[in-house]
Amino acid sequence: MTKTYINRAPQDTGGTWLTYVSLGVVLLFSAFPVYWMFVISTSTDEAVAQIPPSVLPGGEFWTNANEVFTLNEVFFAASLINSVIVSSVITLATLFFCSLAGFAFAKLRFRGRNALLVVVVLTLTVPSQLGIVALYIVMGKLGWNGTLLAVIAPGLVSAFGVFYMRQFIAHAVPDELVESARIDGALNMRVYWNIVLPAIRPALAVLGLLTFVMAWNDFQWPLIQLNGTDFPTSMVALSDLASGNYVIYRRVLAGAFIATVPLIVLLLIGGRQIVRGIMEGAVKS
Amino acid sequence: MSLTELRPASHRPAPPPKKVRTRSWLYRFDNKTIPYVFISPFFILFGIFGVFPLIFNGVVAVRNWRLDDPTLTGWAGLGNFERLLSDEDFWNALGNTFGIFILSTVPQLLIALIIANLLNRKLRGTTFWRIGILLPYLTPVVASTLVFAIFFARDNGMANWFLSLVGFGQETPLDWRAQKWSAWIAIATMVNWKWIGYNALLYLSAMQAIPKDVYEAAAVDGAGAWRQLWRITVPMIQPVVVFTVILSTIGGLQLFNEPMMFDENPQSASGGSAHQFQTIAQLIYKVGWKDLDLGYAAAMSWALFLIILLVAGLNTLLTRRIGGDR
């Protein structure tokens, strides 16, 4: 066994105990901050400053959570609802608009298709965050500043989504299926709804999960829009919770943990899809 | 007109002619216009909220545009850009951004490579490991940074405790936020923590696309596992390495969340008592929405845009060069 690994591809080489120990350490480092967030959110004030650090959860979670939810100026409960609304609307819209456009780019013939697809790919590289100042002025002209609409609108479509959907539909939906449905008199919308959508469920799951995570974690733009309002998103509420002269960490981390739980649940349910989405994205780009 | 003309490849019989005639306008519309209708939401929404602001930003940058005093308008010419050149805060923020960027990108990508190489074996529980290392990627930066802020606390912080364990204990505990170098390291640690797993998966996916016979051929030279990684694997996945370098350049130079939340008072956006770790993205936010000077903030955004283009281009060349020499 000692030297056989040399002439083989790594994929064919079994992991040694060292591989597993190393991966275990990596996993420990990955999980510890999140786990410790949970520990502190269940503890009293003393636990935060304890040396060596406390690593076992206490029994104060409900007390801490209750304090977070009843703080007047933070609007934490409302912020969670807002985050759900913002992330869900963005996710559903992205899935619908991107799969619709992806279908057109993959299966329909129209003038300028290839040129327009190139435009989509080019916009992939646009760091739109750099336009936030002007975006704020645009939102002002629309009268949306300080509303959830302003947070939602820029996230409704994504160039990555269109491109990802186009690639997937091109492979997953046979041309013959689309054509025979058209011959039978089905309109494009019906083809999209009855043939394309059912065939691309795995891609919808991947794009949906990635989009939801991104929308939930977004901070800068929601902060600009909703800071100081009565209806922040949970990330903005968290920054509010952590500001001020006297910060109570068990309370802050209880809030942080509550705002992280939905994503942990998503990782447990859809981890496989998220991994696949990231790995497929790499191959394509 | 009949549908068979448009779809000559079909082997199915055409639908009854009567139906076609009565609804032909609908089918023509469906063929000619509907594709554009399908792609229009993307182009309209992305145009309004993505492309237009980026261009309009250039107009705002050469005007006076204040939120607190709407009467103060008009062309500023290159005034905002001139101000930028002599603005100490800007140069300080630029230095901080680059410092944190280098401290985070280089270790991040190297460690990701090594982890990807570990994952690129015949393992038990493949999916478990892959999902596990993605936990930091999913965790909201705002939440995780709050945890790291306690790790890097001066008094009774875990980082200082760890330093004392390995023999670097100080008389007076290290105040991580106080100095540039220590604050940069703390923030870079957070960035590394978040992105290593994600990049490892990108590398892993590219590694698995390498044909196995490449390795078999190289075995003749007696390449060991470590040399195999650097001599064969890394050059073979070079396009993805370039891609991750560009990604982390774009992301790293716009770093906002970590320095924001690492501050003792996040809402101040000051990046420490003496701006030790204020990044450009943070400064743009402060100038725009705390000082209410949108014109100047827009000029800064444009400057950052140019810097990103420049650095991304340089890094691409550099990565290509390093990979190409092997």
Automatic annotation (TrEMBL), chain A:
It comes from the Bacteria. It holds the Pfam family BPD_transp_1. InterPro entries: MetI-like, MetI-like_sf. SUPFAM superfamilies: MetI-like. PROSITE patterns: ABC_TM1. The keyword Transport applies. Keywords: Cell membrane, Membrane, Transmembrane, Transmembrane helix, Transport. It is found in: Cell membrane. It is a multi-pass membrane protein. The chain crosses the membrane at residues 17-38, 74-103, 115-138, 144-164, 191-216, 248-269. Gene3D superfamilies: MetI-like. Residues 80-270 form the ABC transmembrane type-1 domain. Belongs to the binding-protein-dependent transport system permease family. This is Carbohydrate ABC transporter permease. The lineage of its organism: Bacteria, Bacillati, Actinomycetota, Actinomycetes, Micromonosporales.
Automatic annotation (TrEMBL), chain B:
Signal peptide: none annotated. Keywords: Cell membrane, Membrane, Transmembrane, Transmembrane helix, Transport. This is Sugar ABC transporter permease. Residues 94-315 form the ABC transmembrane type-1 domain. Its main location: membrane. Pfam families: BPD_transp_1 (PF00528). CDD domains: TM_PBP2. The keyword DNA damage does not apply. InterPro entries: ABC_transporter_permease, MetI-like, MetI-like_sf. Belongs to the binding-protein-dependent transport system permease family. It is a multi-pass membrane protein. The keyword Cell membrane applies. SUPFAM superfamilies: MetI-like (SSF161098). The chain crosses the membrane at residues 33-56, 98-119, 131-153, 181-204, 236-256, 294-318. It is found in: Cell membrane.
